Amino acid sequence: MDATHLGDVVVRRARESESDALVGIDAVAVEGDAHRRASIGKWCRDGLVLVAEGESGLLGYCVVEYTFFEQGFVTMLMVASAARGRGVGRRLLDAVAASCTSPKLFTSTNVSNQPMQRLLRRAGWSPVGLLHGLDEGDPEVFYLCDR
């Protein structure tokens, strides 16, 4: 994917060298989650990450994999806390939908993650299922992109 300019934000493929910067905006990785840090590095090496970049630097990132029944799956969407509520997540989701190479594009989030569910609905994604047992007491809601 070439860089896509959306207002003052550019969405483009991440460079492998940016994995440390992405760790810096990922709340889970910042808290010391070694698995998340390793995943960010691997996703960058594998070319699976799109980043949103503004004048102040990286604002968020999105990871798409094609291992969910050979369909696109947004594995991770993270927006820096200072950039939330400014349309960065929506821009990343729209860019992912436009560049998806499979017929369908899915994602999921916990029932407790109301901000992500609102974002998905505003971006035109539809809930398609509920899975219990991943996070105790907090089922996972699966969404399909209506593109």
From TrEMBL:
Q: Does the keyword Acyltransferase apply?
A: yes
EC top class, in one word? transferase
Name all N-acetyltransferase domain ranges. 9-147
Residues annotated as signal peptide: none
Q: What is its EC number?
A: 2.3.-.-
Keywords for this protein: Acyltransferase, Transferase
* A family per Pfam: Acetyltransf_1
An example Gene Ontology molecular-function term? acyltransferase activity
- Can you name this protein? GNAT family N-acetyltransferase
Name its species. Streptomyces flavovirens
High-level lineage: Bacteria, Bacillati, Actinomycetota, Actinomycetes, Kitasatosporales
